[in-house]
Design goal:
Blueprint (H helix, E strand, L loop, with lengths): L3 H9 L3 H20 L16 H6 L11 E14 L2 E8 L2 E8 H4 L1 H7 L7 E10 L5 E12 L15 H6 L1 H7 L1 H23 L3 E2 L5 E2 L11 E4 L4 E5 L4 H9 L4 E9 L11 E10 L3 H20 L3 E4 L2 E4 L5 E4 H9 L9 H10 L11 H12 L8 E7 L8 E2 L2 E12 L2 E8 L4 H16 L10 H9 L4 E7 H9 L18
Parallel strand pairs: 3-5, 6-10, 14-15
Antiparallel strand pairs: 1-2, 1-4, 2-3, 4-5, 7-9, 8-9, 10-11, 11-19, 12-13, 15-17, 16-17, 17-18, 18-19
Helix pairs in contact: 7-8, 8-10, 9-15, 11-13
Length: 506
């Protein structure tokens, strides 16, 4: 495994000797500054009046005119030294802008000091806005302050920071040198803000539930285990927020949601990271149909918020997020794809024979029709669902927290939303029968005892809460990381996580 410094050398196209020399030169410059009482790290504040985008979007001064006075701060990302005058580009939180430095305006000492500044240094500039002869809006500097010294060179302009492994490990550099990365994370923030805005407008309240739990439940997933020293108790990082949120509904908070991190000790790939962000929401007196409408609203509104339209392109596939989305039962979707009607089979044995004919790998020799249907869906249907599609009416065997369909007790009022071949949301008409719920938890416990480490544990607190009465409730969970991937055309989940989980380099 390569050392981070070696990886960075590749991006900078520097030898180790050249990098060592550059690092030493920058440290020597810092020592000189500190020796004469100009330590850049001693600065504590700087009065910023404008960002680059404010200046560039404001009415521009006419040729030869002085525009508004501004005070800006940012990182030097390029510069041209030309005798008595120089240009530089500064990068701030909202973009980049050109700065013009003239020796006669700054004074010889300040101008000479500027010429020793390096790419990556952070400076403050006070001056007036003007337009250059080439038509570029710029700031004519009247005062310059070195606010922070960069002791390590940025990646070279034309090669940049391209190695994905290094980009994820050094996201701070990635954000500096790749403007499209900054834009993507700004869009992520707008997506989360839009979700909150829509939920608040719908009368939901945002709550917080524990990350540390004594029981891993609310989802089928392998948990992370930790230890509470004071209580001398093993605990689990939460795999879902579902059960605590439904307890809130029992308590009379009829519309609640939480945006937060979940932790599942599972595999990593383009769509999975061990810690990820979701929104889970629960609404009393509605069902999974109400949750479908909520999902349509959130996806379409968030798309408009960051893209200006519900018609997007994801990985070269045209996607239309305009409501309403298609609705297809799981059994019908599998029947259309394979010709097999699993619920048309008279017995589970007949269904297992059908599964064998489809060459499904079914490890459980006693698998029921419901489990076989779910397996067939995963293999033959999921990755074919390109346009937004609600797959509804899931088998009860794989839906331990969902209410049964009154007209078909072997099915549940559950859906998952699929777009571009991947799952984005999971929702139920919530099971509120405490007897049925305990029975399903017990069945999950049997599965766990047989070796299924993703089966749910019995949550006694939740069972107790249900006995006090949960009103008819619809609930939904949406993967925010995946939503951001979709709406920003990101190929992998690590692209939309500021700091994805990485194995340390030894």
């Amino acid at each position: 495994m390569e050392h981070p410094a070696d990886l960075q050398n590749q991006e900078l196209e520097l030898t180790q000797e050249q990098l060592t020399e550059l690092l030493q030169v920058r440290r020597d410059k810092l020592s000189v500054l500190q020796a004469v009482g100009n330590d850049p790290f001693a600065n504590t504040t700087y009065d910023v009046s404008h960002y680059s985008s404010d200046i560039l979007s404001a009415p521009q001064p006419q040729d030869g005119e002085h525009g508004m006075q501004v005070s800006i701060a940012g990182r030097i990302i390029s510069r041209r030294i030309m005798g008595k005058a120089s240009f530089a580009h500064l990068l701030d939180a909202r973009g980049r802008i050109q700065v013009y430095m003239k020796r006669d305006d700054l004074g010889e000492d300040v101008y000479d000091a500027f010429k020793t500044f390096d790419i990556g240094d952070i400076i403050g500039v006070k001056g007036y806005v003007f337009v250059t002869r080439t038509g570029e809006t710029s700031v004519h500097a009247q005062q310059i302050t070195l606010l922070s010294k960069s002791l390590r060179p940025l990646p070279e302009k034309y090669h940049g920071l391209k190695d994905p492994e290094l980009r994820y490990r050094q996201r701070f550099v990635d954000l500096i040198v790749n403007p499209e990365v900054r834009d993507m994370f700004q869009k992520r923030s707008r997506i989360v803000s839009e979700i909150r805005r829509r939920m608040d407008e719908r009368g939901f309240i945002e709550v917080e539930t524990p990350v540390l739990n004594t029981t891993a439940s609310g989802a089928s997933a392998r948990p992370f285990v930790t230890h509470h020293n004071t209580l001398d108790l093993d605990m689990y990082l939460r795999i879902a927020t579902e059960l605590h949120l439904k307890e809130c509904v029992v308590g009379g908070l009829e519309r609640v949601y939480e945006i937060g991190r979940l932790f599942r000790n599972e595999g990593m790939d383009a769509m999975h990271n061990p810690e990820f962000t979701t929104i889970e929401a629960y609404q009393a007196y509605t069902d999974y149909n109400g949750m479908m409408e909520l999902a349509e609203d959130l996806f379409s509104r968030c798309s408009i918020a960051v893209n200006g339209t519900t018609k997007i392109t994801y990985q070269e596939q045209a996607i239309d997020l305009t409501p309403p989305f298609a609705r297809v039962s799981m059994n019908e979707a599998v029947r259309q794809a394979t010709g097999v009607d699993f619920y048309g089979c008279a017995t589970d044995e007949e269904a297992r024979e059908k599964a064998k004919a489809l060459k499904l790998e079914v490890k459980d020799k006693t698998a029921s029709r419901g489990k076989l249907l779910a397996e067939a869906f995963d293999v033959f249907v999921e990755d074919t669902l390109i346009q937004p599609t609600f797959i509804i009416d899931y088998p009860v065997e794989i839906s331990p927290l969902s209410k049964r369909k009154p007209t078909a007790p072997h099915l549940t009022e559950r859906f998952e939303l699929f777009i571009a071949g991947h799952e984005y949301a999971n929702a139920f008409s919530e099971l509120n029968d405490p007897v049925d719920q305990r029975g399903r938890f017990t069945q999950q416990a049997h599965e766990r005892a047989k070796g299924d480490d993703e089966a749910m544990m019995i949550d006694e607190d939740f069972c107790l809460a249900l006995e006090y009465g949960l009103p008819p409730t619809g609930g939904i969970g949406i993967g925010i990381d995946r939503m951001v991937m979709l709406l920003t055309n990101a190929a992998t989940i690590r692209d939309v996580l500021l700091f994805p989980t990485m194995k340390p380099i030894k």
